[in-house]
Structures are given as C-alpha cells and as structure tokens.
Amino acid sequence: MKLLRKFLIGAVTAMGIVACVAATVMVVRACRNLAQHDGRDNAAAGWMNLGVPYRFAFPGTVSDPPGIARVGFGETGDDEEVDEERAMAVIDEELREASPEEREIWHAELKGHSPETIREILALRRSLVAAAPGPMADGIELTAADVPALLPVPETGAAPSSRLFADALGLIESAIEATRAAEQAVLNNIANANTMGFKRGRVLFGDLPHRQMALTGPLDQDDRAAPAGVAFGTGVKILATQVDVSQGRLRHTEQPLDLAIQGGDGFFQIKDGDRVVYTRAGSFTMNASGELVLASKNRGRQLEPLVCIPRDAIKVTISAQGSVSVLQAGQTQLNQIGQIQLAQFISPGSLLACGENLYEATAASGNPLVSAPGGDGLGEIQQGCLEEANVDVAAEMAELRRLQDHVKILRQLQAEFSGTTASP
Q: Between 100-109 and 2-42, two packed helices, what is the crossing angle to 10 degrees?
C-alpha cells in the first residue's frame, strides 16, 4: 500500500506541477502584455496586478507622461546587462524539488529577467501551488472512484516506458525460471522410469504477490460495495514439489526375497545406522549373517524388525500378512522365524526423499503407524515381485514438450521486450 500511495502521490504531484507551470507562464505573458500596452495609462494611479507591483523605470518615449515610466516584470529601464548565469542559479535554487524538465521550461520562459523578478515570479508560482489541489496526505485512503483516473501512465518520457519494460521482463524471467525447474522434475521422473519403487515428483506453481492498486469493497454514494478492484500480478514461482505415492505396477521376478506391497499404503522399514528410513523398493538379500538387508553396493541396511534366515534353510516363504517361514534341511514342515511389519503415514507425500529410493519421516508426514501387512489400510506382501516406478513415460514426455513450448514462447516475448535475439 505504501508503494501504491507513493506512486499515486507522484502522479498527482506531476500533474499539479504541470498545471502550475502553465498557469504561471500565462500570468507572466499576460502581465508583460498589460505592462507594455496599458502601463502608461495606469502607472500614475499606481496600478497593481495579481498582487505584484510593477517597477517604475526612467521616463520612456515622448509619448509617455512626464516622470511616468512604462512598467513590466523585470524592466527597470536601465541599460545594465542582465546576468543570465545568476538568473539561472536563482531558478535552480528556487526549484530544487522540481524535475530537470520543469526547470528547463522555467529557464526558457524567464530568460532575460533579473534575479529579483525571477524570485517574485517563483513566489507567485508557490502561491498557485498552495492554492491548487495538492498531493494526498499519508493518512488519506484512496477509494475505488479515485484510482482509475490516476492509473494511466503518461506516454511521454523515457522513465515510465523503462519501468514498464523492466516489469514485463521481470514477469517473463520468473516464468522461465519456474518452468525450467518443472522441466527438471519431469526429466528426473523420466530418468527413473526403470527404478524399482521410485515415486514420481510433481511441481506446484503459484503466482507471486499482487500489487493492489484498489481493493474491493469500498462503498459508493449509494452505499453499495464495489465488487472488483485493481490488482496486477508480479510473476510466478515454485510453491512446492510433491511426491506421488500412488501404486506402481508389479513385476514378477520369481526371486524369493523380492517383496512388493500391493493394494494399499505402507513402506518397508529399514535400519540405516541409528535412524529408520522407509522404502517401497523391496529388493532384499541376505548378508553373511543371514539377515535380510536391502540390496546396495556400499551399505548393508537391515530390514526392521530384523529377520534372520537360518543357514540350513532350503526354502523361504513370506505370506501376504508378512509372516516369514523357512523349510530347513531334514524337516518336512515350515517354521515361522519372523514377522515383517509395514509403516504408514498420515501424509506420505510429505516424506523427505533421501535418495536410493529411501524416505525419511518429517513433522509434516507425521509419525509412522506400524502394523502387520493387510490390516489398517496397509497393502499385502507379494513375494517374488517388485514394484515398478509409478512413472508413465508417455505422459511425462507430453508434459515435457508442453513445458518446452512454453519456455520457447517466453523467450520470444523476452526478446521482443529487450530488443535482443531469442535464445533457446
């Protein structure tokens, strides 16, 4: 609101100054004409105009009454040469708050007048400015009726055009930056289309704060609220990236330690040092101690709770509810040796992606709720399967082309506003 007020105050002040300049110039010219044509008839009576007395000079031509001089601003009748440099310095001093363009107008109009006369004319200008409608005080609020008349930007001068171009380029640049970030997210999805357990990410766009020129709701003279205001957007930004935790297709591998979660929520719990992380990639194997660990080239992350396979086991069976049983050498029946439990979250899309298909709980995701597969909304375990990435490559490619076309259009607009050649 402060920026709006400053903009409007500047616009009103500029219009007031222009009006005052025009009015003062007309007064000066009128006084000069009256002094030249009517001075000799009115001088004897001490004629005054606009509250500024005329100076009497030495007697003029033979047609002038004896002892009576023609009158006019700055005309003393002597032959002293006017100090132009000193006169210009007076204008610059008296009009310190004025723009260079306004001072140039005064230089042209007051050329040839004495410094004393210039001070009087500028004093008249100040009185006109004081009498004219001035800029609004800081405490005065604008109404919807006040704003439209002040919104148009003057076409003259380079400053308004430069600001408009700068604003336009800022809008375009923010859109390009946000769209490029979205492209990176789509490319990452495509790159991980064959990554087991990968969950695609998506980018959420949002507009930047608007410049409010006039708010909705002011009452008119009939006490009816205005249904609309005036606001200008300032660009676009990335609001957030979200993880899409929807189910991916199952791929049958026939490997007994490959596990997938089907038909519901849930993550495998993995012990990673002193913390617990979560994953949908169930590509497990055994370490030298027979413990089930997540397959990795440089880390042995154990399944939580720990499941240890006996060395003499010849068959491993994992039920849909996560019960782990083995058939050992010399036996004919399966023996249960462990129980797999899954974790679910109130807001799984708020999990923190750590890489390697692992996620970490956050304050936004909530604490994990742990229970056996198949109950409380959790999916069931499918042995000998892996969950594929939930990435539709064709859809991602279509989205990537859409974003690239959008950037191309933005680059063309950027070149038009900046006067350069568009870059890819």
A: 0
How far is it, in rounded angstroms, from Cα 388 to Cα 353?
Answer: 17
Structure-token pair, residue 372: 């056996």
Helix axes 393-418, 158-191, angle to 10 degrees: 160
Residue 102 tokens read as: 């306004």
Strand partners, 336: 325
The kind and range of the H/E element at 343 are strand 342-344
Task: Name the burial class of residue 284, with classes exposed (0-12), middle (13-18) and buried (19+) by CB atoms within 10 angstroms of its CB.
Answer: buried
What is residue 181's three-state secondary structure? helix
Instruction: Give me the helix-helix angle, 115-131 and 2-42, nearest 10°.
Output: 130
Exposed/middle/buried for 357, CB within 10 Å: 0-12, 13-18, 19+? buried
* Residue indicated by tokens 């609001």: 239
Give the chain's length. 424
Contact 56, 69 (CB under 8 A): yes
In sequence order, the β-bridge partners of residue 369 are 344
pTM above threshold 0.90: no
Burial of 291 by CB count in 10 Å (0-12 exposed, 13-18 middle, 19+ buried)?
middle
Residue type, position 339, single letter: Q
Q: What is the radius of gyration, based on Cα positions, of the chain? A: 42
What is the distance, to the nearest Å, from the Cα of residue 172 to the centroid of all Cα atoms in its chain? Answer: 11
Ranges of each domain in the chain: 2-131, 164-213+225-247+390-424, 250-387
What amino acid is encoded at 40 in this protein? R
> The tokens of 248 are what?
């991916």
CB-CB contact of 175 with 403 (8 Å) = no
Question: Phi, psi at residue 401, to the nearest 5°?
Answer: -65, -40
User: Residue 415: helix, strand or coil by DSSP?
Assistant: helix
Q: What is the pLDDT of residues 358-401, one digit of tens each?
A: 999 999 999 999 999 998 889 999 999 999 999 999 999 999 99
How many Å apart are CA 185 and CA 396, to the nearest integer? 10
pLDDT digits (tens, 9 = 90+) for 293-349: 998 888 889 999 999 999 999 999 999 999 999 999 888 899 999 999 999 999 998
